[in-house]
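Need a sequence for this fold. Nothing fancy.
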């Protein structure tokens, strides 16, 4: 799935487990960072643009370095060092990484029917325990889009009802501005709707 979907899913998981503030942000990053092994796409693109020999770092390393048991432990362990509630953040972080893996197994297929993305659970040390689902849907298939829309709806509901959102992972100040804007728009929309209902 897309990094945006992974981000929203991880944030929703962290929020649902009761993590707040820094711990919620750290657990969210746990669910996003496995895709750092796909940054080779930047090198591949740069080589193409600059006329250098073609490379395939994305295909070689994506789902091969940080999409296994090693990363599922290492990423939350590294981030929990700066957490206050370390053990709880670590535990939620491990679940967030595995949620990332589940989402990838379900919906990360390429455009071709056989363009499946397997997950090597013991990578980068072994190809044993390779996980793959033959029914994997395409990256831009309707289930992924629907899931992302539902996650966005939940984020907006949190902003309206509880005064915080996933934007807080990046900046608490920007999150306050975002939440105030969303709440103001929501109040305006509900007033307009109430007024429309009251008209004869």
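Here you go.
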């Amino acid at each position: 799935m897309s990094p945006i979907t992974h981000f929203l899913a991880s944030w929703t998981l962290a929020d649902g487990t009761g993590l707040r503030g820094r711990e919620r942000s750290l657990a969210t990053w746990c669910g996003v960072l496995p895709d750092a092994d796909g940054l080779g796409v930047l090198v591949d693109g740069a080589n193409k643009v600059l006329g250098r020999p073609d490379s395939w770092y994305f295909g070689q390393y994506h789902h091969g370095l940080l999409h296994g048991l090693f990363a599922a432990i290492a990423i939350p362990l590294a981030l929990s060092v700066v957490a206050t509630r370390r053990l709880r953040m670590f535990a939620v972080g491990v679940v967030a990484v595995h949620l990332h893996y589940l989402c990838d197994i379900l919906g990360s297929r390429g455009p071709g029917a056989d363009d499946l993305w397997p997950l090597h659970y013991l990578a980068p040390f072994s190809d044993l325990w390779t996980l793959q689902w033959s029914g994997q849907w395409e990256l831009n298939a309707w289930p992924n889009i629907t899931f992302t829309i539902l996650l966005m709806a939940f984020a907006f509901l949190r902003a309206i009802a509880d005064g915080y959102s996933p934007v807080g992972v990046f900046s608490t100040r920007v999150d306050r501005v975002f939440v105030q804007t969303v709440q103001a728009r929501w109040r305006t929309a509900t007033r307009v709707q109430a007024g429309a209902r009251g008209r004869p």
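For context: The longest helix spans residues 172-198.
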